[in-house]
Amino acid sequence: MNPSMHRVALAQLPTPLERADRLSAALGNEIWLKRDDLTGLGLGGNKVRKLEFLLGDALARDCDTVVTFGALQSNHARQTAAACARLGLRCELVLTRAVARTGDAFTDGGNVLLDQIFGANLTVVAPDDARLEAAVADVRSRLATEGCTAYWIPPGGSNAVGTLGYVAAGEELAQQLDAVGLAESDVVVAVSTGGTVAGLWLGLRRAGRTDRVRGVDVYRTEDRTGPVVRELVAGVAALIDDSGSDRLPEPLDIEPIDSELIDIELTDEFLGPGYGMPTAGMVDAVRLLGGTEGIAADPVYSGKALDAVATWAADGRLGPDRPTVIVLTGGAPALFAYADEFRTVTPPGTRPG
Question: Most Cβ neighbours (<10 Å): which of 29, 49, 181, 259?
């Protein structure tokens, strides 16, 4: 078996697919939620699916240490730390101050606090290429000196191996959509490093679904994100085709992947000032989901995807003839690092009325 197809069980699967009745009423469209915030490990989130394959590969290669990267409040870093704790692997996180925010809540709370609780070693650097390269060189040298066998994971776990987790998720979602009788839908998800949307699209297509997949860019502009996503689709499709593994169903006859056939729709309309930077629409959308469904969405990823859905519902871009499925990718711990954006001015002990 190709070692890249080894998988270790980390997530609580399948995650629920729920109809959001009160949110649907508020938006005037049929809305469903794919609850990948409920994957379980390390307070849940989408990265656990990728880590099942990435850390399965690491164990197959007899690695004892995992190194990965992210912004200071990275959900991927937090989930990697939790997964390493579960598997008895050493975890090294190289985190950059890529988001222009200060204050104790942001620098020490949220995911950063959880990274430490899960036992990771943190190296925090400024968002400068030279300093990042120096920090990586230092980590590499230190691990070599200590005799560690390291497995290096890219930001977001978004390479072909990690993307396998979302091919499986797309197939899982396809089965759930079939089970509740949804013939065709709009599937909306936040997009950063691209592995989640790439895998979802391929998994749905492998299952014979023709749902429209709409990605809401939260990291880079559409022109920079699109080529990355298409490359990931092609890479993971080739990996599945070459593996001969029983970890995923046999591939459909879709190789080679023609980039013109990858009909993922991306938009950077809701990116705002940049990655991790709040927008008024995001704040309103997070409050809307919380106030209608009692679900906390994160401010960096799903909050902006929710803003997109609310905006499209208001201006008619969702359309009344098909349901919308929002993939909630987790990351609620980051809300505590963005507390100022969500505080109300209501005095304690009173109720608005």
Answer: 49
Whether residue 52 lies inside any domain: the answer is no
In this structure, the answer to whether residues 144 and 236 fall within a common structural domain is no
- Rounded Cα distance between 20 and 289, Å, is 9
Rounded to 5 degrees, φ, ψ at 207 are -85, 0
Q: Which residues are catalytic?
A: 74
Residue 350 lies in a domain: no
Is the distance from CB of 315 to CB of 22 less than 8 angstroms? no
Are β-strands 65-71 and 90-96 bridged in parallel, bridged antiparallel, or unpaired?
A: parallel
Return d(Cα 152, Cα 113) in angstroms, integer. Answer: 22
- Asked if residue 83 lies in contact with residue 111, where contact means CB atoms within 8 angstroms, the answer is no
Q: Is the pTM above the cut of 0.90?
A: yes
Q: Which two tokens stand for residue 77?
A: 């870093």
Measuring CA to CA, which residue among 61, 81, 59 is closest to residue 70? 81
| Dist CA 164 CA 245 (whole Å) | 12
Q: Is 62 helix (H, G, I), strand (E, B) or coil?
A: coil
CATH code assigned at 192: 3.40.50.1100
